[in-house]
Write a structure and sequence with these properties.
By secondary structure, this protein is of the alpha/beta class. It folds into two domains: 172 residues, 3-Layer(aba) Sandwich (Rossmann fold); 91 residues, ACT domain (Alpha-Beta Plaits), CATH 3.30.70.260. Helix content is 37%, strand content 29%. The strands form three sheets. Strands 6-7-8-3-9-10 form a six-stranded mixed sheet, with helices on both faces. The mean pLDDT is 92.
């Protein structure tokens, strides 16, 4: 798949005015964003993800490395050409950034007016976009008359005004409640599927990645530490940072407190097994229990769907002689099943 965005060896450092210390926000990042995909970029506060998005739209230039968007190396052209390039990149913000003195239609029309688009064409495009985001009937309302979710839909409409190839959503759902978050994520997915816009979603919420992204890049301390298909990353995270994020989204493994309660109520060994959409997986789990003469009681679990494929964990109490339980755990692992023994606190 062709890359719309290419980052090669990108580093961004700052010198702090108060101490003179050099701080590196992004370090040595190599990353491709494929044409037509939704890429989730996730990281905790300070991971460098917001700096990364400012490098992609050339609001900041890297200390070293190159940023290329739609075949144009933004780091090698003058500022006037970068301003032109930014018109192909839409931006959706966490705090909406709407003009309070302008109507909803006026907010959406603003980038078109700046670009010199004729009024008749502006009006046509504004009506088209407000209809797309479900707010045509609120065209002459003002931002303070809208809910947070409606404001973000206006922000999305405005970001789409100039027909961008790329849309950057920087923590676009962080200020919203869960129901409204779902609506905004569904709208972004429509933008991707129906309009063909490539989207980079910057977030600290793995659940948002699970619901919308095709691929995910995980950032920690300025570096991309893991990148891949969202299902593959959820089903087999390779770094501790990614494992922490996956746990927050799936809630399929018992917490330490829950494990302690399970051990109080169940005298046997507590083990969790990873569930994927692999054919015959449940049959192999059941066979391992039957072959080793252990009793297996399901005591905790959760299975979700990502990109129409199942993923999660089931937690069992295994009863029987220690040697039989050891054999059962060994049989599960020999069958290619990921097993975690939930140790007592």
């Amino acid at each position: 798949m062709a890359a719309l965005v290419e980052l090669r060896g990108v580093t961004k450092s700052y010198r702090r005015a108060d101490t003179g210390e050099t701080v590196t926000a992004v370090e040595g990042v190599d990353l491709d964003v494929h044409q037509g995909e939704v890429l989730g970029v996730i990281g905790y506060s300070g991971a460098g993800k917001s700096t990364l998005v400012r490098l992609v739209n050339a609001l900041e230039l890297p200390t070293s490395g190159t940023v290329t968007v739609a075949g144009q190396e933004l780091t090698a052209i003058p500022e006037r050409e970068r301003r032109q390039a930014r018109r192909r990149i839409g931006m959706v913000f966490q705090q909406f950034n709407l003009f309070r003195s302008r109507t909803i239609a006026g907010n959406v029309a603003y980038p078109l007016k700046v670009a010199g688009v004729a009024k008749a064409e502006r009006d046509r495009r504004v009506a088209e976009l407000l209809d797309f985001v479900g707010l045509l009937d609120r065209a002459y309302a003002y931002p303070e008359q809208l809910s947070g979710g409606q404001k973000q839909r206006v922000g999305i409409a405005r970001a789409l005004a100039s027909n961008p190839e790329l849309l950057l959503a920087d923590e676009a759902t962080s200020a919203l409640d869960p129901e409204t978050t779902s609506e905004v994520l569904a709208l972004l997915r429509r933008v991707n599927r129906e309009l063909g816009v490539t989207i980079i979603v910057i977030t600290h919420e793995m659940d948002a990645v699970r619901r919308i992204a095709d691929r995910v890049a995980v950032m920690e301390q300025g570096r991309v530490v893991e990148v891949g298909d969202v299902y593959d990353v959820f089903s087999a995270p390779t770094t501790e940072a990614t494992q922490r994020f996956v746990r927050t989204a799936l809630h399929d493994r018992p917490s330490a407190e829950t494990v302690a309660r399970l051990h109080e109520r169940h005298p046997g060994r507590i083990v969790s097994v990873r569930i994927t959409d692999e054919s015959g997986l449940q049959g192999r789990i059941d066979q391992a229990f039957r072959d080793t003469a252990v009793t297996a009681e399901l005591v905790f679990g959760g299975v979700s769907e990502i990109r129409e494929r199942r993923i999660g964990s089931l937690t069992y109490e295994l009863g029987g002689r220690n040697t039989d339980v050891d054999r059962a755990v060994g049989a599960l692992r020999a069958a290619g099943i990921t097993v975690v023994e939930e140790a007592r606190a």
